[in-house]
Amino acid sequence: MIGRLSGTLAAVQPPQLLVDVQGVGYEVLAPMTTIFELPPLGQAVQLHTHLAVSETAQQLYGFIREGDRQLFRTLIKVNGVGPKMALAILSGLDGNALARCVAEDNIGALVKVPGVGRKTAERLVIELRDKLAPQAGDAGDIPLMTASAPKVDCAGEAESALAALGYKPAEATKMVARASKEQPDADSATLIRLALKSMAPA
Q1: 3-state SS class at 187
Q2: Is the C-alpha dihedral spanning 90, 91, 96, 100 positive or negative?
Q3: What letter does residue 143 receive in the DSSP assignment?
């Protein structure tokens, strides 16, 4: 098992990262909550990782905080929730928001996550009820990604990232369009944050 990576952040293409560890590049999938907290490109980064092994692939998932990795591992133990769905859930909801959804039986918020149907949402509420508890005080807005980048097609990058998380292309386009209206000059990371925030429970 690869439990932790410490190296240089070489590339970010949400939800995928490339971490250079002494000349070896590790491709890591990370939820947007982790991507928003990454250091600038070229700087040192440490990720808590989970190695998912299937019949067709081996994929590393990375998290800034150990608690996020533990939450990811809790999610994939729920019947019908695989690593890809868990990644989408943690991209749309941070741990506190997810705990509130579970505590309040907020099925409606959970089914907004791509791939989560009503039955899966109900299982999440039932199976996580005794495992998650909202923390006192809300963390508020997710910090913006600090990595600087040249001007590119920010809307296109944001749409691609949302599609990679499982949102349908048309839905991703609408989400990014709404975010662009809110902040016309926003970079791709901000557009993703705003788009996901619009889908999160109030």
Answers
A1: coil
A2: negative
A3: P
Q: Cite the DSSP H helix spans in the chain.
A: 32-35, 66-75, 83-92, 95-103, 107-110, 118-128, 154-164, 169-182, 188-199
Using alpha carbons, select from 128, 23, 139 the residue that is nearest to residue 86.
128
Q: What is the pLDDT of residue 200?
A: 67
What end-to-end distance do the CA atoms of the chain give, in Å? Answer: 38
Inter-CA distances, 153 with 134, 158, 179, 186, 189, Å: 37, 9, 14, 11, 12
Residue pair 32/196 in contact (Cβ under 8 Å)? The answer is yes
Rounded to two decimals, what is the model's pTM?
A: 0.70
- pLDDT, average across residues 16-35: 94
CA distance 171 to 100: 25
Distance of CA 75 to the CA centre of its chain: 13
How high is the pLDDT of residue 135?
53
